[in-house]
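Regression check, protoporphyrin IX containing FE case 170:
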Amino acid sequence: MIALLWRSRSQQASRRLRPPQPTIPPSHPQGNIESHPPGPLLSWARLSIHDTHVGPHFVPAGTTAMVNMYAITHDEKIWSNPNEFKPERFMEEDVPIMGSDLRLAPFGAGRRVCPGKAMGMATAQLWLAQMLQNFRWVPTENGVDLTECLNLSMEMKSSLVCKAVPRISA
Ligand code: HEM
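Current build output:
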């Protein structure tokens, strides 16, 4: 199941600089949201040049379609208790993230999938490993606020302030 957002050309013109906002149900405690896809809306500005169908959806020519990965990762029909912070769900069920499984596709899928996905995975792991190996991370009095703010990518509403103490003194 894919959640799609459609915009006609005239709608695009009036909202050219602002993407449609993923819908966050007001009852959800945003700080506990399980999935924070870095790119909530995939496949930017794909224009249908002919009338076509995507699954049950009719897509008229001249429509820009985007995949709402945010909605997919918060869909109760796909993920049990999607708003619960439960990282062990990915140990219980091994979900591929490189584009072969649309339940979780942070790099997109198909012919326009992110070509840097392997590099992204390798470097994120390397940075994290180096930061943990070289520093001790001490909480500050501000704590960690996971409230989200959607710009072109998903960002933290409040900057993360951390205190990094070198593990080995120079
Ligand atoms: C963790 C890191 C990264 C994430 C989460 C990410 C995510 C994405 C996403 C969601 C897309 C859009 C896919 C779509 O339209 O369906 C994309 C496209 C793209 N990414 Fe990445 N990316 C990452 C790292 C990188 C790196 C390291 C490079 C290059 C060295 C890169 C280069 C590109 C390019 C060129 C496209 C456009 C592909 C196209 O439109 O044909 N990305 N990425």
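Comparison notes: Residues 38-39, 42-43, 106-108, 112-116, 119-120, 124 surround protoporphyrin IX containing FE (CB under 6 Å). The two ends are 53 Å apart (CA to CA). No diff flagged against the previous build.
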